[in-house]
Amino acid sequence: MTKEPRSRAGQSRRPGRAGRDVPPPADDTPIIHGAVPPREVLLRFISENPEQASKREIAKAFGLKGEARVELKALLKSFEEDGLLEKRRKSLVRPGALPPVTVLDITTRDVDGELIGRPAEWLDDAGVAPAVLIRQSGGPRKDKAPVAGLGDRVLAKIFPAKERGGPAYTGRVIKVLDKKKNSGMGVFRAMAGGGGRIMPIDRRGEEMEVDADFTAGAKDGDLVEIDVVRMGRYGLPRAQVKGVIGSVASEKAISMIAIHAHGIPYIFPDAVIREAEAAGPATMSHREDWRSLPLITIDPADAKDHDDAVFAEPDPSPDNPGGVLVTVAIADVSYYVRPKSALDREALKRGNSVYFPDRVVPMLPERISNDLCSLKEGVDRPALAVRMVFSHEGRKASHTFHRIMMKSAAKLSYQQAQAAIDGAPDDKTGPILETILKPLWEAYRIMTVGRNRRQPLELDMPERKILLKEDGTVDRVVVPPRLDAHKLIEEMMIQANVSAAETLEKKKQALVYRVHDAPSLAKQEVLREFLQTLDISLVKGGNMRSNHFNGVLAKAKDKPFEQMVNEMVLRSQSQAIYSPENIGHFGLNLLKYAHFTSPIRRYADLIVHRALVGSLGLGEGAITPDEEAALDDIAAEISTFERRAMAAERDTVDRLIAHHLAGRIGEEFDGRVSGVTKAGLFVTLPAYGADGFVPISMLGRDYYIYDEAHQALSGEKTGLGYRLGDEVRVRLAEAVPLAGSLRFDMLSEGRKMPTAVRSFHKSGRRKGAAPRRQPGTRPPRGRR
């Protein structure tokens, strides 16, 4: 039986002599009081207890005396020589770690509105400056602690973060050193006689006034950066323009707003461009020549870079009858982007490429991403390849990694490959149909047997794509069909990712995993209560598996509430993150999983490539001791940058759709209730993928009861109400394009609610005439 992955919450912690919690090693090697602990335990203790990282304090924490202290001293010395630790005064710290007290500049907010700071002084060759989540509430000191704001410089006490997936550190403000002017962005509107107004670009913003002497040459309609110079009790706040970004009417202005608002680096420094332009073709050193193997790329029709290629054939071994060999080749980015280079520092600062409907902000310059590392048809390209052996039952029997030189035999789109398999080959797919495409589909059929047995979470959430006109405005919103060609590539990439994690674990090589924790018990209970209203049961207990959720989804299949159940299951899930600690991937139902297949657009994959190169002795570009020591910080940073990219992409879509619908005020639309709160309803327009808000004041002159378990608002007098998933008719009442905000009036009469929903809860009582909530506030969303 396959062993269930253990979460960190299930691990024990052993108290040291000094009262500190000493973390257990990953392999459960016992920690003996008075004996030098295992290497990984010692390194983790130093990371998590920077204030107790002197030799004396470490010895005290583990109860070391005599010869054990001598052994500890030698071990710590070896850590320094290997670059895993460095000495600062009398304490030892991990390279790149922040000192216990640090000067921070508060630069931005996260998706929850919490302040994020970064070290005021940070060397460029030290990589990206780590983020620090500023804690300003809770605890007995909250009334005494100084209150900091965006743009301030502060002195802060630094603590290692206890939660994974966010910034690596949290900080408590000790003192505000410099109160900087509030800054932000807006759209400049010129006024007669000079000066102008700043129109807000976010939902909570307000108009500001700019005197004629402080416009910095801004023209009407320009997107500008501003400083707030005066806030008063009366009249509009006053601001001054400190920079002009460009005209808001330009075709890429909407995505530029998100880029600036979320602090996404989008201009490559000159040193990075020079380094990229100086790069030349890879050599055959440490490479196998696979140029005769007919690997092909299958990508979206508009793809500019191609980082993965595939090939499959029957396994000739008599020991594996009916089995297949599947080869996945991935662009060898690690050959070009070396640790601590300008390219590497910039890639880590970005974390990943960011995809907007009108542009891409790449992680790497085009010379690397679209040229030297793109697996172009008929061109020699370096790659890391994994060759996997599958039985006829879809079980992976073995795999091997190779550093190769390849030459893509064909560049196909998903639609092109699928059409050939469906009986409509073209001039390019016809000649390779029998020799390349059909063996790939046969391999996929076999791999699907294994996938079905594994039972990953099978959510049915259609993804919409915005198609733009030449002027950058929305043409239409489509839901591209989900083809077997998409599923084939997805499954082959998943198995390649699994193989990378397995190989690195076997080599005892540190790496960054892609992990996905099981849903919390609290979220499980909320989902369970909701499903009970639909007469669908969900098992109880902590040993939840993805197939339990699949059973729920199967019971909702083809029912009126199918989409509603899919959304609620999605909301119950934890967020996938990067971590050097493996807890498995709940959604994919995999014990070992690491991102390996997209190093052009994800820094996590680049780290895994370097780890493979180093652990397998495949030549230049291997992971360094400094990188290994910093994997905790790197994982936290790239997880944060991933969420930053998601938020920016989402905000851009909201603004584009709001701009598209701004001229249709008063029109009626079919919608679906996608969120229920005490303040009102969120309604999604399926035709556009847009979210809008219906304030509770627009639902009628009744008292409305909010029932979280049933995700419903029910009128106390009439018993009529609305539930998550209800199909409704709404009228567009307001659209604010720059804020991405829509507000609707409800036209559909509520339906009769079940008795359980109508039961009165005093805490949920809301009158229809209650004050409106800010229109356009976003409903909660989940992500696998």
TrEMBL record:
Task: Report the sequence similarity comment from the record.
Answer: Belongs to the RNR ribonuclease family. RNase R subfamily.
Instruction: Reply yes or no: does the keyword RNA-binding apply.
Output: yes
Region of interest (Disordered), ranges: 1-33, 755-784
State the UniProt keywords alphabetically. Cytoplasm, Exonuclease, Hydrolase, Nuclease, RNA-binding
Q: Where in the cell is it found?
A: Cytoplasm
Which reaction equations make up its catalytic activity?
A: Exonucleolytic cleavage in the 3'- to 5'-direction to yield nucleoside 5'-phosphates
- Enzyme Commission numbers on file: 3.1.13.1
Query: InterPro entries annotated for this entry?
Result: CSD2 (IPR040476), NA-bd_OB-fold (IPR012340), RNase_II/R (IPR001900), RNase_II/R_CS (IPR022966), RNase_II/RNase_R (IPR004476), RNase_R (IPR011805), RNR_Ribonuclease (IPR050180), S1_domain (IPR003029)
| Pfam families registered for this protein in UniProt | CSD2, RNB, S1
Question: What organism, scientifically named, is this protein from?
Answer: Shinella fusca
Q: Does the keyword Cytoplasm apply?
A: yes
Enzyme kind, highest EC tier:
hydrolase
Biological processes annotated in GO = mRNA catabolic process
Q: What is this protein called?
A: Ribonuclease R
Protein function: 3'-5' exoribonuclease that releases 5'-nucleoside monophosphates and is involved in maturation of structured RNAs.
Q: Which GO terms describe its cellular component?
A: cytosol
What's the domain of life for this entry?
A: Bacteria
